[in-house]
Amino acid sequence: MSFKKVQLTLLSVLLVLFLVPTVFSFDFSKLENAVTEHRLENGLTILILERHDAPVVSFVTWANVGSVDDSKGYTGMAHMFEHMAFKGSKTLGTKDINKELELIAKEDAIFMQLRAARNKGRFADSAKIEELTVAYEAAREASYELVIPNRFGNVIEREGAVGLNAFTSSDETVYFFSLPSNKVELWMALESERFLNPVLREMYKERDVVAEERRMRSESSPIGKLIEEFLGSAFKAHPYGVPGIGHMSDIQYYSRKEAKAFFQKYYGPSNLTVAIVGDVITEDVIKLAEDYWGRIPYRTAPERIATTEPEQSGERRVEVEHQSQPFFIAGWHVPEGTHPDRPALDALCDFLGQGRTSLLYKNLVKEKKIAMDVGAFAGFPGNKYPTLMAIYAMSSAGHGNDEMEEELFKEVERMRDELIPIEEVDKIKARAKADFINRLNTNHGLGMQLAGYQNLWGDWRELFRELDRINAVTPEDIQRVAKKYLTKKNRVVGMVVTTEE
Amino acid sequence: MKKTYIFFLLVAALVMLSAAASVQAQDVDNFKYPKMNKLEIPDVDKITLDNGIRVYLLEDKSLPVFRASVRMNAGSFLESADKVGLASICGTVMRTGGTNKWSGDEIDEKLEAIGGSVETFIGLESGGASVNVLSEYTDLGMEVLAEVLRNPKFEEDKIDLAKVQIRSGISRRNDDPQGIAFREFRKVIYGADSPYARQTEYATVNSVTRDDIVGFHAKWYKPQNMQIAIWGDFNKKDILEKLNKYFGDWKQEGELVPSLPQVDYKFENKVHYIKKNDVNQTNIVIGHIGGYVTDEDYGDLIVMNNILGGSFGSRLFNAVRSREGLAYAVFGSYTAKIKYPGIFVGFVSTKSETTVKAVKEMIKEMKRIQTDPPTVDEMKMGQDGYLNSFVFNFDSKSEVVNRMMNYEFYGLSANHLFKVKEDVENVTPESVIKAANENLRFDALHIVIVGKGDDFESPLNEMGLGDVVEVDITIPSGEEETELAVTPETLKKGKALLDKAVTYAGGLDALKAIKSMNSKGTMTIVTPRGDMPLQIESVFELPNKEKTVATIMGQKMYSIFDGTTGWQPGGAGVEQMSEEDVIKKNKDNGRKTILIFQKSDAPYYKAVSDGSGEIDGTSFEYVTLIDDAGETICRLGVASDGLLVCKEY
Asked: Are A284 and A358 in a shared domain?
């Protein structure tokens, strides 16, 4: 009895010795311990990581608001506000703020009249609309006279910023750029200013820009069109089904009033996280942050949407006809990013559709050569709420959706029917580790990771638990989630179908 | 008690600080910044191996990763024009098609088991490879790299896969309107047949053989053509040992790599329209040829680009996007290259209904750079922006070590970047205007427009910006023959061939006397129930009336064509010929040898000599016949004595 015990212990020691160098050869705790988390009185979360390799620093401002927070009739508002956040403030971007605000108020008043006139729909008075349109355009040009266009971006770029940009997704809105590290104060001043005193100047001109963005990303792109239709049929209740860029008519409808209200509701400091990674001194950063960001008054946290997507009662299918080559996508409803089933689903996606040795690539691309590209990923379109795991395939010349669908689902079936060999699961873990390390490569990348985990998990430290979660996955877990989620009933299928003219 | 007091003092100090801060924020122009921490530019170790491989090393212990990138002086410009795609396939299959030691699939397994990658490719100017593995797998990464560069096996199946991928890319190349616009613009600038812009087609991919690929690799993948940059977690002694182990016995040999061909460019005003009906947004590219980074005024052009259309607050962004709301995507830039000229390009995408307006607005705004000197703010953005962000050229080890490799590849001096910086420091508003006037030509712009022309607000030929040509982007099927060369020589030779055939058949006069032809024959139809003989008798009344009687199992079937329509009387009534079939029938009749011969002296008839061939030991020459509408009728093979050997259509 006792002999056996010793043997077991020896075995586990050997196992540990064997595992430690391969899985944990790099000490991430050093990196983790170097991160400072600081919260201002107004609720702003600041994450700082000192890296002194080069005299540069990257900034990320992560607003915990995304297109899921758009309301009906005002779709695309989160994205619209992202555009407006580049328009400056009361002190930046104007020739005369008082006069400008007056003209902006006039512009708003006329637009609201025009909107009301247009909104009469079939009872609309076209002469009145025309008259108001002329007045509205004149007011728009009048207020523009006092604008110093793109002053915000201009100042930042002349001081040496690189990578100035922002994006809006279903879950979040993120603003970022990098500066030489002696200019931290410039970021403090300008970034806090745009969320303290934003002036939504040029709003009605910018709507046209967003409309062009919509035409580019969605209306003139077959895959863009399909994604809208696909998500729309996957989510009937939850706003994950609404296009993030907004419906064209909504983009042309909303006014500055609604954009302001949106800002007021979602851009309070407690709803923001900033990450600062680079050649900085933590105490100095905190001091400056208190001075600049501390100016923004506390606001109560916004209410989150409570709508949940009801269970699907059967497969849903959607097609987009276009003069282009076929494209196939399928999705299954899966839980939010923090759910305990997600590491197994991520592992499943890796094995099924990531890389040249994945099931889908081997079958459809290498062997049958019916697809030129395939993939699988979880967390589409977001991760904060129950979401989709998706697979896609782009056909090879002369091949079509039907044969791809058959082969794709055959491989998905295997995930349900067969247990993945343990060696394969080890490979998934090795890939996860390499991928994790590669994500820590740049200041910007690190800032994005820290702020992102802080928002999804409520704690940036979860970034460093990522590998633990993947390493705990077993072949049985993967088969279990495959059986649980990858059913026909739970599935949405979308495809681009080729037409001639 | 005392504690509380201190607390209040602190709060008071904080409040004051905040007040001070909000004043500062208004005055970003007068911010005083502390001195920047010293930029330490790491030294790159450069070593040349005995066989000529140039190695650039830079250690970086911050993460446990090992990385390398390779440049091989072997680009797609070296492939022949009828094999476009050869270099690209070679670059792909080098990695996917296995080596002497491992199959391609084995390499996939090995690398993906450790989350690493080794990739290879061949681009326009050079080939390349990359390695990215955790440092514990450095040895495997180096061995795979050496294997794929030195001993690729080019497995047939992986060649097929690469070809399928390229063909699929061809089939999808018209799905992306912006891609079309830039592709066609490059063709206009560099020449559609030049290595800078030529397209891979089904025919060129299909013609690439395994021998071609093996030959391309064997000819150019040589140690003296190779450079390798290595950075990450390694030590120098170790890595040099590995380099010698895996690359040391590779022998220098072979010929010098030729240089890139000249670009033959003609300045002209021209609008190239590409119809795409399934979009509601037009993609527009405007410009002409560009310059070289070694040009004297390159510094001025960098500043000009930043002011013109690089970023937030540039002129094009301000005018076309923010002020006019015409676009989301807009930019403009005079680009410079090293071995061949860059392009001057303005790009915008706008809704179909504002296409012409956007073109005009773009040109108006770009032109202004020649006349309206940059303002103080614009100079700050264009010049200070470059200088202030200079430090980002050194914020990663990868940039530093790869830059050194690239500069040596291009023959630029090691301090080239600092020379550019110096040039930028000396730029003035006047020098920007001067450079704009010397390099930009608004009297000679090529404009490529991809969109739904029916929805444009006005016709493109009313823009006054040059002739409008419609460009057909239909993808050639790959089954067509190469284009027929119609020259006085081929026409003369073709006519002689045709005449010879006519003479052999009895001479033009005799042939012209023929009014009708009868033919009679027996066919055998093979059916599961046995063979069935079929007698066919037909009368052909020139030029286009025909009656055919087919007899099968004693049953007669008629088929009549009167030149304008045809019909088949049958048991169940009369079956009328469809309009489509009538057209086809007339076309077929037009190809009848007798009619071709009878018309051989018609002035509109073109006979073009078109290569030679051989059937059953009889060699012959081809002549292709083209009718008055310019359509090809058929291709005849005429033997040396005038005998008509074959007819193709």
From this structure: no
Cβ–Cβ below 8 Å for B395 and A212: no
B39 touching A, CB under 8 A? yes
List of chain A residues whose C-beta atoms are within 8 Å of the C-beta of residue B16: none
For residue B64, the chain A residue with the least C-alpha distance is A26
Give how far A165 is from chain B: nearest CA, Å: 10
Q: 0.90 cut: is pTM over it?
A: no
Contacts of A218 in chain B (CB under 8 A): none
Query: Token digits for B525?
Result: 């139809």
Window B:449-478, CB contacts with A under 8 Å: none
Tell me the domain boundaries of chain B: 45-176+192-247, 270-470, 488-648
Distance (Å) from the C-alpha of residue B30 to the closest C-alpha of chain A?
11
Q: Across-strand partners of B206?
A: none
Question: Average pLDDT of A226-253?
Answer: 97
Q: Would the pLDDT of A200 be above 50?
A: yes
Say yes or no: A235 and A332 in one domain.
no
Separation between Cα atoms, residue B189 and residue A88, nearest integer Å: 40
Nearest CA of chain B to the CA of A149: how many Å?
6
Q: Are residues A75 and A215 in the same domain?
A: yes
* The CATH homologous superfamily of the domain defined by B270-470: Metalloenzyme, LuxS/M16 peptidase-like (3.30.830.10)
Q: For residue B351, give the nearest of A181, A193, A212 by CB distance.
A: A212
Tell me which residue of B277, B331, B272 sits closest to B305, measured CA to CA: B331
Domain boundary residue among A238, A263, A295? Answer: A295
Residue A273 sits in the same domain as residue A350: no
* Interchain proximity B63–A26, CB inside 8 Å: yes
The whole-angstrom distance between A7's CA and the closest CA on chain B is 30
Interface size A-B, in CB pairs within 8 Å, comes to 241
Of B96, B87, B75, nearest to B154 by C-alpha is B96
End-to-end Cα, chain A, rounded Å: 80
At B406 the three-state DSSP class reads helix
Taking an 8 Å cut-off on Cβ atoms, the answer to whether A180 and B36 are in contact is yes
Q: Please tell me the total count of domains within chain A.
A: 2
Q: Which CATH superfamily is domain B45-176+192-247 in?
A: Metalloenzyme, LuxS/M16 peptidase-like (3.30.830.10)
Dump pLDDT digits (tens) for B513-534: 888 888 888 877 777 677 778 8
Query: Could you check whether B45-176+192-247 and B270-470 share the same CATH topology?
Result: yes
Same domain, A439 and A331: yes
Q: Is the pLDDT of residue A18 over 50?
A: no
CATH number, domain of A222, equals 3.30.830.10
Which two structure tokens, joined as six digits, stand for B533?
């003989």
* Continuous segment of H or E residues that includes residue A377: strand A371-380
Residue A29 lies inside a defined structural domain of this protein: no
For B74-171, strand residue ranges (E) read: 117-122, 127-134
Residues 275-334 in B contacting A (C-alpha not used; CB under 8 Å): 277-281, 311-313, 317-318, 321-329
For chain A, the average pLDDT equals 93
Contact B349 A212 (CB under 8 A): yes
Give burial (CB, 10 Å; 0-12/13-18/19+) of B412: middle
| Domain co-membership, A235 together with A325 | no
Q: What is the pLDDT of residues A346-374, one digit of tens each?
A: 999 999 999 999 999 999 999 999 999 99
Say if residue A473 is in the same domain as residue A331. Answer: yes
Residue-number span of the structural domain to which A257 is assigned = 37-94+147-295
| pLDDT tens by residue, B425-446 | 999 999 999 999 999 999 999 9
A372 contact residues in B (CB cutoff 8 A): 164-165, 168-169
Q: Which residues of chain B have pLDDT under 50?
A: 1-25
Q: Give the type of residue at A499.
A: T
Q: A294, B18: Cβ pair inside 8 Å?
A: yes
The set of residues, in sequence order, having a beta carbon less than 8 Å from that of A97 and lying 6+ positions away, is A90, A91, A199
Cα gap A367→A349, rounded to integer Å: 20
Judge if A216 and A73 occupy the same domain: yes
Contacts of B478 in chain A (CB under 8 A): none
Quick one: closest CA in A to B137, which residue? A22
* A223, part of any domain: yes
